From TrEMBL:
Source domain of life: Bacteria
Domain Cysteine-rich stretches: 4-85, 136-220
Signal peptide span: none
InterPro entries attached to this UniProt entry: Cys_rich_dom (IPR004017)
Name of the protein in its database record: (Fe-S)-binding protein
A Pfam family: CCG
Amino acid sequence: MRIGLFATCLGDTLFPEAVKSTAVLLARLGHDVVFPPGQTCCGQMHVNTGYQREPVPLVRNFAEQFGDASIDAVVMPSGSCAGSVRHQHEIVAARYGDAALRAGVATVKAKTYELSELLVDVLDVTEVGAYFPHRVTYHPTCHSLRMLRVGDKPLRLLRAVEGIDLVELPEADACCGFGGTFAVKNADTSTAMLQDKMRNVTATKAQVCTAGDSSCLMHIGGGLSRIRSGTRTLHLAQILGSTRTAPYALTEAVR
């Protein structure tokens, strides 16, 4: 399968290893991964902040970059960006776009997936040859859980990882409190939600807290480092990309 990889803004600027791991994993599974060089932001942050007309050029560019018929599927290591492409792009195109944009958005929407969706639903795999001999807990991010409804797909992938000690996260479906600009506009509420999430993460005594969104991991990881919890955050793609022959070198988190 020829798969188009969307890096996302956070992946491009702050968490490139999650993007690289996605490409390495899919190539290891025998797929042709392509990276359209003209890709930009998907426009999610504009729409989430109430600016629906402004991201029209971004939505149009996404449809043009990934609408190539030779690309069988589009994947991104982000539930929130996948949710934006599958839901928000259609709203933006319907309200402020032309017929060509609406058609392009519909084409790309039909083949866009978050990483765990692509692996389980499209490629029909749960065992990807991963090796990660560490204690791990999983945080289901809000967009993946509530917008994409990925369900237990990430957990099914994690359970199949060789050597992993996967522990259940208490109150797993509770939001971590990030929510993009929500964390800035409602800092006190965001911090309180983060404290609840950190308490539950540390209760698992996990070495690693993983998720499918770098944004949530950035928020949780920042909190965990400030309290010197000893638990670090790592994207799901990086765990699935780790193998016996090329294991992920897990460094100790600050205690």
